[in-house]
């Protein structure tokens, strides 16, 4: 009986395609808020910090949330020696005012440490990140 179960398990693994495996997702948040411009960078005082929530998937979907909305975009993921890099140009803000509030997004994550950095809309902050698997139902629902 155990060998029959092992045979079925092996058959299921071998028959599944890589495209059916949902992509990893990284969730990140900031402990500090840093703003940078041409004249330098400055950290916001603790009581004035804007919490951020960042989600980036290996299939290139990225969302950087702050204030009352999110910059969202799609890009190609670049992987190099345990570093992951997403870069999206002109990502729209979900609650953008008339005239737009687009931003270029750059997100870097060092996989082994779970540490990252984001640059979006003037914010340039270090992050703490964690990897999770994307739920199959959510991934399937987003596919057109």
Structure explained in plain terms:
By secondary structure, the chain is mainly β. It has one domain. The chain is built from two helices and eleven strands; from the N terminus they run H-E-E-E-E-E-E-E-E-E-E-E-H.
Q: Layout of helices and strands, plus pairs?
A:
Blueprint: H1 2-15, E1 24-29, E2 34-37, E3 40-43, E4 53-57, E5 61-66, E6 69-74, E7 77-80, E8 83-93, E9 103-110, E10 115-120, E11 123-133, H2 136-142
Antiparallel strand pairs: 1-4, 1-11, 2-3, 4-5, 5-6, 6-8, 7-8, 8-9, 9-10, 10-11
Task: Describe this protein with a few key phrases.
single chain; 144 residues; mainly beta; 2 helices; 11 strands; 15% helix; disordered N terminus; disordered C terminus
**Dominant shape:** globular
Report the portion of residues in β strands: over 45%
Major sheet: size, sense and barrel closure? 8 strands, antiparallel, barrel
- Report the helical percentage: 10-25%
Supply Rg: 19 Å
The total count of helices amounts to 2
Give the class from helix and strand content and strand pairing.
mainly beta
The number of distinct structural domains comes to 1
Number of strands: 11
Provide the succession of SSEs: HEEEEEEEEEEEH
Strand order of the largest sheet: 1-4-5-6-8-9-10-11
């Amino acid at each position: 009986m155990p060998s029959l179960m092992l045979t079925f398990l092996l058959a299921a693994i071998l028959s599944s395609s890589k495209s059916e495996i949902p992509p990893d997702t990284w969730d990140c948040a900031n402990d500090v808020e840093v703003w940078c411009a041409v004249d330098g960078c400055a950290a916001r005082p603790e009581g004035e910090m804007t919490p951020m929530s960042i989600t980036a998937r290996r299939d290139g979907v990225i969302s950087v949330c702050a204030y009352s909305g999110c910059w969202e975009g799609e890009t190609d993921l670049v992987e190099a020696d345990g570093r992951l890099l997403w870069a999206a140009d002109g990502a729209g803000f979900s609650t953008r005012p008339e005239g737009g509030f687009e931003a270029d997004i750059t997100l870097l994550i060092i996989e082994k440490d779970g540490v990252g950095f984001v640059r979006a809309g003037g914010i340039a902050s270090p992050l703490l990140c964690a990897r999770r698997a994307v739920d199959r139902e959510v991934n399937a629902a987003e596919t057109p």
